[in-house]
Specification:
The complex is a heterodimer.
Chain A (H helix, E strand, L loop, with lengths): L38 E4 L20 H9 L4 E2 H8 L3 H13 L3 E4 L10 H12 L2
Antiparallel strand pairs in A: 1-2, 1-3
Helix pairs in contact in A: 1-3, 2-3
Chain B lengths: L14 E9 L5 H8 L1 E10 L2 H4 L12 E13 L3 E7 L7 H8 L4 E6 L8 H10 L3 E6 L9 H8 L7 E4 L4 H16 L19
Parallel strand pairs in B: 1-4, 1-5, 5-6, 6-7
Antiparallel strand pairs in B: 2-3, 3-4
Classes of the chains: A mainly alpha, B alpha/beta.
Chain lengths: 132, 207
């Protein structure tokens, strides 16, 4: 093959298969799939305990985990994080679940997705749009 | 307008809304998102599930277990605690499985129509009708496209009389803004929320 053939351009993504970053895991550790617009925020690491508390899983943080934590100093949505870190959504979800399990991250409560937002909230959105 | 507590505590929770921007390939989805927000790329590398296997031709790629979908989204921050996300839906029908995720909890959808290829928006209209997602049809006014009366488009698309149909220039902030305002008003009026048809497992039309 002609070595000049640039068939791997930026759009083709990283050369490493994406789920290699998760050790081949494609499902979040806790089985919960975070919504695209779920809001997560980094929390201070728990005190290093002599022995891990029951149910607490020791997670070795990879560079990708740390990058995500860095992006979540302020509340951020899953979509923001995935876009900022330029990793596929599924991979980011697995990594986020790891951080949630390790109590390095928390999900901020949102109104239930299946409920219609209140009229007051919708009016706020209208007001916000009109002000753009 | 309601004032926002400004004690600096930042304790006010972030309220996030999703609006979908749908329409056929080249209908102007990315242009629309870009007119009102900063467009950001989002890549998914979805593990193929039974829901998507029917739409992804795997012959000759027996070891392919993921499929890549590239999407665009934009974020509009309003005030200190309201954030509106616009998600361009992936155009090809083989990405229907992403639509289920995108439409879950969505405030509503804008279906961008190109009058040169009006049938391209049939699948979107059909999807939102079946899912009970409030939507409107925005006819993107391409310079070289024939101008149609919105009512003609309504008839061509066989739309419910309550679904708003409007002209739109996806390049113009003011026009996009008006489309979003009309959509939220439509949701607020309660007329957009048709009873979801028991949300059956959605399959691609004709697929």
């Amino acid at each position: 093959m002609d070595p000049g053939d640039k068939w791997l351009d930026r759009d083709s993504g990283p050369v490493v298969r994406p789920y290699a970053l998760t050790g081949g895991r494609t499902e979040p550790a806790d089985g919960e799939v975070l919504d695209l617009v779920a809001v997560v925020v980094a929390v201070d690491p728990p005190e290093p305990a002599e022995e891990p508390a029951p149910g607490q899983v020791a997670v070795t943080l990879t560079p990708e985990h740390r990058r995500i934590l860095g992006l979540c100093h302020n509340p951020a949505t899953v979509a923001d994080v995935a876009s900022d870190i330029a990793l596929p959504l599924g991979v980011v979800r697995v990594l986020l679940a790891d951080l949630l399990q390790a109590e390095r991250l928390m999900v901020l409560p949102q109104r239930p997705a299946h409920e219609q937002p209140s009229a007051a909230l919708l009016k706020e959105v209208l007001h916000g749009l009109r002000a753009l | 307008m309601d004032s926002v507590p400004s004690d600096g505590s930042g304790a006010l929770p972030l309220t996030v809304f999703k609006i979908l921007i749908a329409g056929g390939f080249g209908a102007g989805k990315t242009t629309l998102v870009g007119a009102i927000s900063e467009v950001r790329p989002l890549r998914t590398e979805e593990a193929l599930t039974s829901a998507s296997i029917g739409h992804d031709d795997l012959r000759g790629v027996a070891d392919k277990h993921t499929t890549t979908v590239a999407m665009d989204f934009g974020r509009i921050t309003m005030g200190s605690h309201l954030v509106l996300y616009l998600f361009g839906t992936p155009g090809q029908e083989r990405f229907w499985f992403m639509w289920d995720e995108l439409s879950y909890g969505a405030l509503g959808a804008v279906v961008l129509a190109d009058t040169r290829r009006l049938d391209d928006c049939f699948p979107s209209v059909d999807y939102f009708e079946r899912r009970g997602v409030p939507f409107l049809v925005a006819i993107n006014c391409f310079d070289d496209a024939p101008r149609y009366d919105p009512e003609d488009v309504r008839i061509a698309l066989d739309l419910d009389p309550r679904v708003p149909v409007m002209l739109c220039d996806a390049r113009q902030l003011s026009s996009v803004k008006q489309a979003l305002i009309t959509l939220v008003e439509h949701v607020l009026s309660g007329r957009g929320r048709a009873r979801p048809a028991a949300a059956p497992a959605v399959t691609a039309p004709g697929g």
